[in-house]
Amino acid sequence: MAVEVRPISLPRDAGAFIDAWWTIYKDDPHWVPPLRFERKEFLDPAKNPYFGLAELQCFIAYKDGEAVGTVSAQLDRGYQEANPGVGFFGFLEFIDDREVSKALIDAALAWLSGRGMKRALGPFNFNTNHECSLLVDGFDSDPLVMMVWNPAYYMAHYEAAGLGKEKDLYAYWLANDGPIPEKIAAVSERFLRRHPEVTIRRVDTKKFDEEVALCKQIYNDAWADNWGFVRLTDREFDKVAAGLKPMVDGRYCYLAFVNGEPAAFSLTLPDYNQVVKPMNGSIFPLGWWHWLTRPAKINQIRVFTLGVRQKYQNLPLGAPLYKRTWDAGREAGIKGAECSWVLEDNHKMRSAIEKLGGRIYKTYRIYGAELNESA
């Protein structure tokens, strides 16, 4: 039977869109099922401010009456301010069937082309401020919190459909099996000794909203020149922060100040995928028990973001932030940390992580395609 790709309406059809993923991943031992209620909220235009900043369409693919794949296509107005004519695709999930994957990709690219786009990039769910990229190497372990996972066969399907590499992103693994390398410790101590105007403290989770306001001053400025970056509006930033709040552990989050001015922050998250995976997407009937009891068993963390305002990027603020996170992880019995993701051409950040002993253990890829009227 032929594949049928149907456009859907959100939030009405969000449940069907999400449920298709359980069919695709039913036999995958490394897939971490998302929490259904969280994904439904993310896909609800009334609850996610992103919908006010983009035009988008989601699709479901059916074969023999069964949902066998999903995709989205989106025009991100923030990204197009600097990159006119470039649209995004995302949420591209499919069974191992070339007919299904091609039909989904064709539908997304045709939607973008029909709106005047000349180029498509993805996968973005929905842009670089959300989950994005395709895993192309490192399939032997579960993804960490807020990192994507996909079967190994996806890459061949992408390339068979005419999508090509745009940019690689790396995840580094740092084994926390000893003191931080002496060189990093020395740089950190010497820098703080010579610059008494620099102060570093832990994020105070009891004053969460106030701390978010400080991070907001840093974020858009620090990442402005990064490839693919899309500025977060205040509403989006607050929405993202609210989603992270249940996972934020003050032991692993730091703010740096220069003469009292917010200069940098680092956010490292406990790997809540170790909690969420056995919940199988639901709080009920026993998901709540895992959420309440398993956090104490988390033994790995993800360095989610570390940003320095541009005016202070000549200072080695990363060294003391890394050191404090490393020391906190050792004290908590953390076995290791993932630093992700890092652009392949971000040599400054890659060098810093490698000096800490980090090794690339997973590679992710953003794909691109030229569009024309026949797409």
Task: Write up what this structure looks like.
The chain is α+β, with helices and mostly antiparallel strands and 375 residues long. It folds into 2 domains: 4-167 and 366-370, 3-Layer(aba) Sandwich (Aminopeptidase); 178-334, Aminopeptidase (3-Layer(aba) Sandwich), CATH 3.40.630.30. The protein has 12 helices and 15 strands. Strands 1, 2, 3, 4, 5, 8, 9, 10, 11, 12, 13, 14 and 15 form a 13-stranded mixed beta sheet that branches. A hairpin with a 2-residue loop joins strand 2 (54-63) and strand 3 (66-76). Helix 6 (182-194) crosses helix 11 (318-332). The model has no long low-confidence stretch (mean pLDDT 94).
CATH architectural category of the largest domain: 3-Layer(aba) Sandwich
User: Unreliable segments (pLDDT under 50, ≥5 consecutive)?
Assistant: none
CATH class assignment of the largest domain: Alpha Beta
Q: Specify Rg, calculated over alpha carbons.
A: 21 Å
Q: Name the helix and strand elements from N-terminus to C-terminus, one letter apiece.
A: EHHEEHEHEEEEHEHEHHEEHHEHEHE
Bin the strand percentage.
25-35%
Kindly give the count of domains.
2
> How many strands?
15
Coarse shape: globular
User: Helix segment count?
Assistant: 12
Q: Largest sheet, described in full?
A: 13 strands, mixed
Assign the CATH superfamily of the largest domain: Gcn5-related N-acetyltransferase (GNAT)
Mean pLDDT: 94
The structure class reads alpha+beta
Q: Terminal Cα separation, in Å?
A: 23 Å
- According to CATH, the fold-level topology of the largest domain is Aminopeptidase
Query: Percentage of helical residues?
Result: 25-40%
